[in-house]
User: Fold this.
Amino acid sequence: MARIVVTGGAGVIGSHLTDVLLAQGHEVTVVDNLFTGAKRNMLHNRDNPGFEFIRHDVTEPLLVECDQVYHLACPASPVHYQYNPIKTIKTNVTGTINMLGVAKRTHARFLLASTSEVYGDPLQHPQVETYWGNVNPIGPRSCYDEGKRVAETLTVNYHEQGHVDTRIVRIFNTFGPRMLFNDGRVVSNFIVQALKGEDITVYGDGSQTRSFCYVDDLVAGITATMGKDGFMGPVNLGNPNEMTISELAKKVISLTGSKSKVVQKPLPKDDPTRRQPDISVAKRELGWAPKVDLEAGLKKTIADFDERLRRGETAR
Assistant:
């Protein structure tokens, strides 16, 4: 049994990770300021003696004892991370320094949840971990993209200079139950619009591509990375099955039985045109690959959104 801290543990990925860690018998302390996380994602664990929640902003110092740190804290959708870009970069930089400091002081193993956004609008396809990326350092997405790139730098520096046992995972598009209604990302947008019978908004001509990984698969990759001795990464975690945004819209309409129509709007500045992970490293080093196909994952996610809509949930 390990004492584990999960920052951002009230979010989608963090809450599913917490469930898995608790099921394995670990003690889990969730640290979250609830900016994009939600209390409802943790309520089912409130009576578990191994669970603890601390409402805290990681940009402020934290004193906690632990054996492992999963550092997931940061808004991950453009709608949220662009709402307060200075706060976003502080979370990625100061927050990462603070949590690396916790790991150093307690001799804990540390895992950074980085992102495929470090590749920017990639000129190499699919993206491998050795690719340095194509990022606009002064664009509207830079608070997140460059923030995560600095967070990776810090993680490597603390490993090399501070002798902290670190891991870096680069997370590609992930979806699943517990996503926010106002998440702003394509899967949640499409599902909510389809269930409400509203027009489905496609930005650009819909030819841009993404690869969508179900949250259970992603969590399995994260825990495998934390558990692998002598492996620092970075490692891509995502589903390599690439599809266009237009194809996703048609799939969601079909699975929901919606009569929604697709409407097009201008593509946001610096929005990546192609995104697909090369997961060769994950397969070789971790024995990991996604198992849940897109349709099965979408059905579970649609059912979750539908239930919450029927209960009268709105933004959160």
